[in-house]
Automatic annotation (TrEMBL):
Alpha-beta TR is a heterodimer composed of an alpha and beta chain; disulfide-linked. The alpha-beta TR is associated with the transmembrane signaling CD3 coreceptor proteins to form the TR-CD3 (TcR or TCR). The assembly of alpha-beta TR heterodimers with CD3 occurs in the endoplasmic reticulum where a single alpha-beta TR heterodimer associates with one CD3D-CD3E heterodimer, one CD3G-CD3E heterodimer and one CD247 homodimer forming a stable octameric structure. CD3D-CD3E and CD3G-CD3E heterodimers preferentially associate with TR alpha and TR beta chains, respectively. Keywords: Adaptive immunity, Cell membrane, Disulfide bond, Glycoprotein, Immunity, Membrane, Signal, T cell receptor. This is Ig-like domain-containing protein. It is found in: Cell membrane. The keyword Disulfide bond applies. One of its GO terms (cellular component) is T cell receptor complex. It comes from Vombatus ursinus. InterPro entries: Ig-like_dom (IPR007110), Ig-like_dom_sf (IPR036179), Ig-like_fold (IPR013783), Ig_V-set (IPR013106), TCR_alpha_variable (IPR051896). Its main location: membrane. Residues 23-120 form the Ig-like domain. Residues 1-21 form the signal peptide.
């Protein structure tokens, strides 16, 4: 019997009063169903001015958010087990890649962009 995993990516955009209202965050795909052992990649596209802090979170059903990664520098690549994230500030895109998915990967994955002024 084939096992299918359902993973979802939701976008959480963190804004403060000094952030330009034209900033935006978009995701793809919004949901994804894959077979166990397959790879999955989610993309987070954003537009902004100034310093960017890109966060990736995971939320299991009826549980609190868990911060997986914080990315600041373009070209940055981080790993945590079978998870890999990248940040490309030129293209204003980040990706989250899950290698060899397992049933325990079923969750909601959130991308959040924050802008902060120096010293705040």
């Amino acid at each position: 019997m084939e096992k299918h995993l359902m993973v979802a990516l939701m976008i959480l955009s963190l804004h403060r009063s000094w952030v330009n209202s034209e900033d935006s965050v978009e995701q793809s795909p919004r949901t994804l169903t894959i077979q166990e052992g397959m790879n999955a990649t989610f993309y987070c596209n954003y537009s902004s001015r100034g310093s960017d802090y890109l966060h990736w979170y995971r939320q299991d059903l009826r549980k609190s958010l868990v911060n997986l990664f914080v990315l600041i520098t373009s070209g940055e690549v981080k790993h945590n087990g079978r998870l890999t994230v990248t940040l490309n500030t030129k293209d204003q895109q980040s990706s989250l890649h899950i290698t060899a998915s397992q049933p325990e990967d079923s969750a909601t994955y959130l991308c959040a962009k924050a802008q902060c002024s120096p010293g705040i």
